[in-house]
Amino acid sequence: MKIRSLPVSLFAALIALVGALAPSIASAAEPRTIEITANDQMKFSVTSIQAKPGETLKIVLKNLGTLPKDAMGHNLVVLKPGSDAAAFSNAAVAAKATEYVPAALKGQVVAATKLLGPKQNDEITFKVEAAGEYPFLCSFPAHFVVGMKGVISVK
Ligand SMILES: [Cu+2]
Prior knowledge:
Helix content is 28%, strand content 30%. It is of the alpha/beta class and 155 residues long. It starts with a helix and ends with a strand. The site of copper (II) ion (CU) has 7 residues, from loops.
């Protein structure tokens, strides 16, 4: 009885091993999609994201608002760990020509969506290589101060 059951349990163990490996292979190849909405109340629907070092993330930003882009545009800018998001927001006020991404601070940007008007979408795909806290914000004037900000925690 024992001799007969051994190959069966080995086969079952192999099946289990393949099953355990398959999802990790799939996740390494495909970015993880995170949908975030913005609105006329100046809120992001997601403000905290957990990720692993080396993971590829795809953030889809959807502006659900109806107010015109000049008055209530939204973007989503991901900064490198250690960047000062408040300082970035302050500098962005004078950077309307570059969709509120100040040229002098471009080196801090990991990825940025375009500035969205009402009912527009955009997406960014990027890899978070190093562990750390990656701040993100909407850099439209004053939106950071009202609370359009969050953190991607990579560990
Ligand atoms: Cu905004």
